[in-house]
Every structure is written in C-alpha cells, then in structure tokens.
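anyone seen this seq b4? input:
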Amino acid sequence: MFGLNPFSRSVAITEILLLLLFIAFVGWLISQLVFRKRISKLLSRIEYEEAELHKCYKLTN
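predicted toks r here
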C-alpha cells in the first residue's frame, strides 16, 4: 500500500514503537479520568465535612 516492506526490521520496530506510544497515551487518558473522578469525590467529601464542622461550631458558640 505505501511501498513499505512489512517484514523489514526498521518497519517492524517503527510499528512496535507506534503501538507502544498509542497504548501509553490511552493509559494516560484512562488514568486522568480515574484521578479526576477520585479528586472530585474527595473535594465533595471535604466540603461536607467542613459544613458539619461549621454546624458544630455554631452549636457550641
């Protein structure tokens, strides 16, 4: 198709490197989604705990 010999060493190495780069990029995207979700949950939990703490301060003062 492109005039490249698929059995040559340089083409094989290039294909492997491109596949590894693609897989690394997909893994990075997945990790970003997971960490954003976890950070969002932690921030909402912190807001909830701060609200509870504020209620306790109001009751004691």
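The helical segments are 9-60. The mean pLDDT is 93. kinda curious what u guys think
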